[in-house]
Each structure stands twice: as structure tokens, then as C-alpha cells.
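Appendix B. Raw example, untouched.
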Amino acid sequence: EPRALIKTGSVNLRAKDVGQVVADITGIVTAHRGEIASESTTTNDDGQQQRSQLELRVPVDEFEAVIVELETVGTLIERHSNEEDVTTLVVDVDARVQSARDAVESLNRLYVRATTLGQVIVLEREISQRQADLESLLGQQKVLADQTAMSTIAVSVSRTPDKKSAKPVDDDQAGFVTGIKQGWDGLLTFVVAAGHALGVALPLGSLFALLALLGWVVVRRRPQHHREPQPSE
């Protein structure tokens, strides 16, 4: 029995003409019996397509071939792919679906043969619960069947940015900028020199002030001799 596989992938491309790449992708998907499930495109103020995002659905057995062809329609930026084996899960869900169906059929046969109101009420409640379980399992079975039959590929195509040339600088502007730079350098040199001179002068000034203060204290403390007047003869 073949394996049940879920295959998903993503491809990021870059191109000068986004619209042309999207057209090429559409052709690839159609050739491999797939479809474009969704598409979103953004444009700039000039109406040029800047970016387009697509979700592709292709048969699982065509997944690898589509991925390879997608890489040729633009510059490949990034690519991812994933494969998940869900064979056991599919078998389990199928078995549970069959079991739920058998249970509902058995309860319906009992319901037909019910003879009392109590039996009818109990069987109706049980049938309702089993029917809800069956519908949930059928939903899981449908999703798995879709995922294992059709793979999903997310494709992003962005426009290659235009190269911007550097703006030339004329001679007058260059001379003005050079003059400003030289003036600024001269100002910095003056500030540094002045700061250095001030740093040297401040310690010397402090020393002179200290010496003057010591001299003043010595003079104040020096004893003064007063000469007494001589008596007149």
C-alpha cells in the first residue's frame, strides 16, 4: 500500500518583472494539473508590481518537479520543503470512521425495536452522540485526504530594487565643505591648546597664592618691639 504523505514548501524569488514571473508560475502550475489557491499583489505609485504572494496547490506526485521549475523563473532567494508521513494516522482515522458508522447503525436497529419511552430516550441520546463523533471523524478524514492528494507551495516574488547612482559633488561644494572642515579643526586645536595652558597656569597660581598666605601669617605673628621714651633732663 502506498504511503500517505503531506508535502509543503515555500519559494522566495526576485525578478525585475514581477508580473512576468507570476505569468510563468501560472503556466507551470497549469502544466502540472495544479491550481493557484490565492494571490496577493502590491504595486508602487507608478503602478509597477513590487511584490506578489501566491499559494499553489499541486498533486503530491508533482511536488518536486514544480519546485525545480519554480527556481528557474527568477533569482532564487530562499527555498524550503517539508514531507510528513501520515500513513498510520490515515489508517487509524479510517478505522475509527468505520467503527463509528457500525455503532450508529446498531443503535438505529435497537431504536426501531424499542418498546418503552425510557428505551427511546436513552437510544436517541446515544445515537445523537455517536453521530456527532462520526461527523467529526469524517471531517478529519476529508482533511487528510485533501492534504495527501494535493501539496501546498507558498511562493513570494519581489521586484529587484533599482540601482541608485551616487550624486556627484561639484568643485564649489567640495571647496566649501573642505573650508568648513579646516575651520573646525583649527577651532578644536585652539580649544585644546587653551585648555592645556589653563591647566598649567592654575597649579602655578595656586602655588603663588599659598606662598603669599604663608608670608602674611609670618608677618602677623612676628613680635614687635616698642621703644620707651627717654626722660628729659
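End of appendix B.
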